[in-house]
User: What shape does this take?
Amino acid sequence: MRVPVLPCAIMACLVSMAAHAAQPNRLSGRIIAPTGDSVFVQQAVVVSGKASERTLAAAKLDANGGFRMAFDLDSAQALTFFDGNEITQFFALPGEQQELTLHTAYFDESLYFAGDGAGRNNALAGLALANENEWNRVAQDAADTAHVDEQVDALVERLAKVMDEYAVAYPELANLLAERKAADLQGAAQQKQWMQSRILFKKRVVEMVGQPMTNLMGRDLDGGKLDLARYKGRITVLDFWATWCGPCKAEMPAWEALQKEYGDRINFVSISVWDNEDKWKEMSKSLGHAHSMFIPKTDLGQLEPYMVNAIPRYMVLDKDLRIVTIDAPRPSSGELQKFF
Assistant: This one.
């Protein structure tokens, strides 16, 4: 796990405040293994008391995943880079010429900035990754919901101190960092709720092993009724996805490869949730899914026992359609096969 460190070397890398000539900001770079065909730079705005994101610039990726875009700033800003699937925040001063590269399979770990402000943005990317690792560590260590509040409060306090150190290292960004720290403090309640849900989910994963799952109902591609009982007699792998879900679609090549290799003895069932039925039919047919199910929004309550609150999500059932796991690895991990 990376931990943010602020030695004298970082303190010596303060961004020069020499004035840029009047020119637009430019951001270029490359996305390796892109999940979409466009990238965006967005800015947080408040309209009628509500926060939202305004797109400053957008660019189509070329054949190599490269992009170039330009936008205008009149002051230092915290901006959001969005690749159509994940986001990262970076800081920009007026007129800066910046570059970034990343690999979508290792988004946070591979994110790298070059050009103007590279020192501060790479430091902040490292901080964001360290923060995420810290949250994940606390979430992994938390065994019950009774102590979540004190664990989260202690972590927020530690991260706030690190943020203050960054503000000292980069004084021109002090105000923006203060805003981010305030947002982190305000988000503590959400984090507590998320961790409590995670703890409950981990318990549910254990509780559901061996439970039958024959009563799940949906529709097939012809609009007829479909229930999982049809697949009894084989190991069955379930993929909960949606046509709008970038991470879901990124897993499709690996899912299809497994289906091709093991489909003669294992059922691979793609289950669309929170989706448009017509779009689901079109994409399912184009992908050539061997087994496909659509669950209308009105029927999603049947998924509550399995805590399907986010996608993609994978489950494995035995030949009697009893649950092996409701939290199987993603196809691209190479770990799903151990359940076959």
Q: What stands out?
A: The first strand starts at residue 25 and ends at 32. Confidence is low (pLDDT under 50) at residues 1-21. Residues 210-339 form a domain with the Glutaredoxin fold (CATH 3.40.30.10). The CA atoms of residues 110 and 282 lie 34 Å apart.
